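ok, trying the design again with the full structure, not the truncated one.
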């Protein structure tokens, strides 16, 4: 068996099916597309026919696909790129799909993966899910199931991106605080009253009030509840419920 020849990544915009053939996997749900900036789906599979069919399916659902015949080709494309998610075949030439999944955790943690295989088993599925895969699909798979998995992966990436943005915004505001204001804010978030804060820091309640006002202004919030929500959201990855 000859080794697979790497091919250049192809966008869905450059792929065309012959007019005489019906689109494969043609059951497309009528749902709105995700944010185009993050809705680029990487398809990593050395089966050209399947990659092309997936590109058509994903494109019809409103997402842009780029296909790679090997893990190495995909990894080379990661520099300066961001993919919303990746569809990864378990059996790839060179670096296999499971090894690629583990590498993604370090190289592109914001790129969730859906694993595809024609030779799956329960232990392999468990291993993939433990390694962070959103789903583990056996070929031939149901088109609707695949699209649901892609949607889940994109939603996970979007939530992670929003969480990172919230954390960065919070840190940017917090960096404007003086060391004393930061101390006061920490105690405010813990629910301490002015007298208790003053006693802990060795300052008067009136001075605490001044610091509280400065904290509220610099953190761009109008209430203590707003400050608590902002702080918890930044520190828990947006999970404040």
């Amino acid at each position: 068996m000859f080794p697979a020849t790497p091919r250049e990544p192809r966008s869905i915009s450059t792929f065309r099916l012959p007019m005489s053939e019906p689109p494969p996997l043609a059951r497309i749900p009528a749902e709105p597309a995700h944010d185009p900036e993050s809705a680029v789906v990487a398809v990593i599979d050395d089966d050209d026919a399947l990659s092309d069919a997936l590109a058509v399916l994903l494109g019809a659902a409103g997402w842009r696909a780029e296909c790679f015949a090997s893990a190495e080709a995909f990894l080379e494309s990661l520099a300066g790129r961001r993919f919303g998610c990746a569809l990864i075949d378990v059996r790839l030439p060179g670096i296999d799909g499971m090894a690629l999944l583990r590498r993604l955790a370090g190289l592109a943690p914001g790129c969730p993966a859906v694993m595809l295989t024609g030779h799956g088993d329960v232990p392999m599925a468990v291993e993939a899910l433990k390694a962070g895969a959103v789903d583990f699909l056996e070929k031939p798979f149901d088109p609707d199931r695949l699209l649901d998995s892609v949607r889940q992966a994109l939603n996970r990436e979007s939530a992670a991106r929003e969480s990172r943005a919230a954390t960065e915004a919070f840190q940017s505001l917090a960096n404007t605080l003086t060391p004393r204001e930061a101390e006061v804010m920490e105690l405010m978030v813990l629910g301490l009253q002015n007298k208790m804060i003053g006693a802990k820091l060795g300052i008067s309640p009136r001075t605490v009030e001044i610091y509280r006002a400065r904290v509220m202004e610099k953190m761009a919030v109008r209430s203590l509840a707003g400050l608590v929500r902002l702080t918890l959201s930044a520190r828990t990855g947006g999970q404040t419920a």
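Keeping the full-length input from now on. The longest helix spans residues 143-174.
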